[in-house]
């Protein structure tokens, strides 16, 4: 199934019965397929920029394009490039960007399809910089900016996805979300005036998403770095320090959220101990300390004002802001079950 067909089917399935387990499985299978395809295309376009070749030389060809890129770098003497750039397997770059896009969109109170943003970034470039509308952003120019490091083997797909490329796409998401918010009309009263919608819970969720984006999603955010340093100080000298530093180091260095079992095993405690005596306790310590740091709170409030996001009326509940994520079901099982069902639905194609 090509990307155009997969996207069309996904949108069609969204209109189907939401509680139908077959629909849920099919949607997950299609999303996984799209993630794999976009992961390859994003890598290929970054490599185009790093190589300085014409935009579109490789990325539209998927894995074949990556194979061509591998040959080009080898023939031109750049044999130190990290092999993950050319790998047939999923690199994780798309997942990092998907999580960042969804978090940013939620911060604006809108819903956006990550693959729509990816497609816009890939297709939105003009090959001729002299033409109007050419913008130096997106995967290609992430490759241009990081060309020397990629050629020297100092940049991986995940690192570029969580850094330069996420910053580029972040601006695109911000522009798209703001435009969507502007186009949304407020309900009108009898005299035609706008009605105020008082939804405290929704505002708190929006604020939570923005706070999480600053601290944990956009790793390169200077304010986020400052907050994470303060976070480490909040649990320094406690019995929880080693475990929580392991968790936070993993988030920063690998752009993923490690499960409690992994952290517990790394520091030699039980998962129950980590969950009950470490996780909740340290987040409470952090928020208590943060809300006492008026200088840092002021910087966060200024950011919220810039983002036009409502501020918390009081300290957020750490369990609501940073909920422990449940383990996902096997992707292999989902693909097998959903693919069998899809093959029987000829009307979808």
Q: Overview of this structure, please?
A:
This protein has 349 residues and is an all-alpha fold. It has two domains: 3-182, no CATH class; 203-321, no CATH class. The chain is built from 17 helices and no strands. It has helices spanning 3-14, 21-51, 63-75, 93-107, 114-123, 139-145, 147-151, 157-162, 164-183, 200-217, 222-234, 241-254, 260-267, 271-290, 294-306, 318-321, 331-343. It is globular. The relative contact order is 0.10. The model is unreliable at 125-134, 182-199 and 324-349 (pLDDT under 50).
Describe what is shown at a glance.
This protein is mainly alpha-helical and 349 residues long. The chain has helices at residues 3-14, 21-51, 63-75, 93-107, 114-123, 139-145, 147-151, 157-162, 164-183, 200-217, 222-234, 241-254, 260-267, 271-290, 294-306, 318-321, 331-343. Helix 4 runs antiparallel to helix 10 and helix 13 packs across helix 14.
């Amino acid at each position: 199934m090509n990307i155009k067909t997969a996207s069309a089917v996904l949108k069609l399935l969204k209109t189907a019965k939401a509680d139908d387990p077959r629909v849920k499985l099919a949607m997950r299978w299609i999303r996984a397929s799209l993630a794999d395809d976009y992961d390859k295309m994003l890598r290929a376009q970054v490599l185009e920029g790093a190589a300085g070749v014409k935009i579109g030389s490789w990325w539209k060809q998927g894995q074949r394009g990556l194979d061509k890129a591998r040959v080009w770098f080898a023939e031109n003497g750049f044999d130190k490039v990290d092999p993950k750039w050319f790998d047939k397997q999923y690199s994780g770059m798309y997942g990092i960007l998907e999580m960042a896009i969804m978090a940013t969109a939620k911060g604006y109170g809108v819903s956006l399809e990550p693959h729509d943003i990816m497609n816009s970034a890939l297709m939105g470039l003009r090959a001729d910089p002299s033409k109007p509308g050419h913008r130096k952003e997106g995967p290609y120019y992430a490759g241009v900016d990081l060309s020397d490091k990629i050629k020297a083997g100092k940049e991986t797909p995940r690192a570029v996805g969580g850094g330069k490329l996420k910053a580029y796409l972040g601006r695109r998401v911000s522009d798209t979300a703001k435009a969507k918010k502007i186009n949304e009309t407020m309900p009108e009263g009898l005299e035609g005036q706008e009605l105020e919608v008082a939804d405290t819970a929704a505002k708190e969720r929006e604020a939570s998403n923005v706070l999480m984006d600053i601290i944990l999603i956009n790793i390169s955010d200077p304010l986020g770095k400052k907050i994470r340093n303060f976070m480490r100080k909040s649990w320094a000298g406690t019995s929880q320090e080693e475990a929580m530093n392991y968790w936070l180091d993993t988030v920063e260095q690998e752009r993923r959220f490690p499960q409690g079992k992994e952290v517990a095993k790394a520091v030699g405690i039980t998962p129950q101990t980590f969950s009950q005596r470490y996780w909740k306790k340290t987040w409470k310590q952090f928020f208590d300390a943060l809300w006492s740091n008026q200088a840092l709170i002021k910087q966060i409030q200024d950011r919220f004002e810039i983002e036009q996001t409502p501020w918390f009326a009081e300290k957020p509940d750490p369990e609501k802001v940073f909920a422990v994520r449940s383990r996902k079901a096997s992707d292999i099982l989902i693909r097998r079950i959903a693919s069998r069902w899809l093959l029987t639905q000829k009307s979808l194609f």
